[in-house]
């Protein structure tokens, strides 16, 4: 099961969690593996049997007020029982003052204790959305992901087939690069795939004979995207003489990533074929299909209708007016 460390959560800026570390720095490598959080109200009263150690524990004003009303001996007894469980981390909400014993035990047990200025309900919503996205299944794929006319096109194929060169030509035509060489794919419920570049490779592209280039610096921020939904996979394959290729577009294939099927087209590559134009047209055609229009199916229907009309006319000439 995928996990995320408390250190990664603490360093997250875009989600607006606004976290600061109060104690327990030695436990920042602890991992959260469940997007749901828990409010350990009963645990503060000494009942820890249903405490989930792999969930973030949120302490709001209700929990801290309850602790403040308990005798000092009872507070220490209950907190030590709570910290005996290997909790992944505690979050104090509303920027509240934290009891010294809580800070001390967090440091002793190496359990991160963090604080946010958000109210409990707001923070729970923010952190749940963040964790749901980060803890979904992910994988990496050798390929290139580009945004072509709003369609996320994943270019696949053997090394050296020309994926990066095709992507560079698409950028020159005004389209946007998401990731080159290695695409990190995340699954988002219910059945959507998002692709993004690896941190080290962001905005960079390898062109044989030219080397590593930075698309963002060369063409500006309008030429790149952080991430994109994957709508279509195009596999570039070497042209083989004598092999039959789909010429009508009626053979619909799919490519499976994280148990999600996406449409797949196999594009044969040989000198003289403008692969970039084919990719652009494939993206436009995918947009039409998503709107319910399929050119190949429409052509087949028209062809069958015309064949039926010709057959009827031919039979009418032979049999005459008696044909029903």
Q: Just name the CATH architecture of the largest domain.
A: 3-Layer(aba) Sandwich
Mean pLDDT: 88
The CATH superfamily of the largest domain is known as: P-loop containing nucleotide triphosphate hydrolases
Q: Count helical runs.
A: 10
CATH fold-level name of the largest domain: Rossmann fold
Considering DSSP H and I runs of 4 or more, what fraction of the residues is helical?
A: 25-40%
According to CATH, what is the class of the largest domain?
A: Alpha Beta
How many domains comprise the coordinates?
3
| Secondary-structure element pattern, one letter each | EHEEHEHHEHEHEEEHEEEEEHEEEEHH
Structural class: alpha+beta
Gyration radius, in Å: 29 Å
Low-confidence stretches: none
Shape: elongated
- The count of strands amounts to 18
Strand order of the largest sheet: 10-8-9-16-18-17
Please give the alpha-carbon distance between the first and last residues. 67 Å
Main sheet: strands, sense, barrel = 6 strands, mixed
Task: Classify the beta-strand content into a percent band.
Answer: 25-35%
Provide structural commentary:
With 324 residues, the chain is an alpha+beta fold. It has three domains: 131 residues, 3-Layer(aba) Sandwich (Udp-n-acetylmuramoylalanyl-d-glutamate--2,6- Diaminopimelate Ligase, Chain: A, domain 1); 156 residues, P-loop containing nucleotide triphosphate hydrolases (Rossmann fold, 3-Layer(aba) Sandwich); 30 residues. The protein is built from ten helices and 18 strands. The strands form five sheets. It has a six-stranded mixed β-sheet with strand order 10-8-9-16-18-17. Strands 2-6-5-4 form a four-stranded mixed β-sheet. The chain has a four-stranded antiparallel β-sheet with strand order 7-11-12-15, with no helix packed on it. Helix 4 packs parallel to helix 5. The termini are far apart. 27% of the residues are buried.
């Amino acid at each position: 099961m995928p996990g995320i460390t408390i250190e990664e959560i603490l360093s997250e800026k875009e989600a607006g969690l606004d976290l600061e570390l109060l104690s327990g720095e030695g436990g920042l490598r602890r991992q959260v593996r469940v997007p749901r959080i828990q409010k350990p109200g009963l645990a503060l009263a000494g009942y820890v049997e249903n405490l989930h150690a792999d969930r973030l524990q949120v302490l709001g004003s209700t929990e801290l007020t309850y602790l403040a009303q308990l005798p000092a001996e009872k507070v220490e007894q209950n907190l030590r029982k709570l910290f005996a469980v290997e909790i992944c981390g505690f979050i104090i909400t509303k920027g509240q003052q934290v009891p010294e014993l809580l800070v001390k035990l967090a440091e002793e047990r190496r359990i991160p204790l963090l604080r946010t200025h958000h109210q409990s309900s707001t923070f729970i919503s923010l952190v749940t959305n963040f964790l749901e996205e980060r803890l979904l299944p992910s994988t990496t794929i050798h390929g290139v992901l580009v945004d072509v006319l709003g369609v996320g096109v994943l270019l696949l194929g053997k090394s050296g087939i020309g994926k990066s060169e095709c992507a560079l030509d698409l950028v020159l035509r005004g389209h946007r690069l998401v990731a080159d060489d290695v695409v990190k794919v995340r699954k988002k419920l219910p059945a959507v795939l998002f692709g993004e570049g690896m941190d080290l490779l962001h905005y960079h592209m390898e062109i044989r004979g030219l080397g590593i280039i930075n698309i963002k610096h060369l063409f500006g921020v309008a030429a790149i995207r952080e991430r994109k939904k994957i709508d279509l996979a195009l596999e570039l394959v070497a042209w083989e003489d004598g092999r039959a290729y789909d010429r009508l577009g009626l053979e619909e294939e799919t490519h499976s990533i994280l148990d999600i099927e996406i449409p797949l087209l196999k594009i044969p590559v040989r000198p003289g074929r403008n692969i970039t134009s084919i990719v652009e047209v494939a993206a436009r055609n995918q947009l039409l299909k998503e709107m319910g229009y399929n050119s190949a199916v429409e052509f087949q229907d028209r062809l069958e209708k015309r064949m039926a009309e010709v057959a009827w006319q031919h039979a009418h000439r032979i049999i005459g007016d008696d044909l029903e």
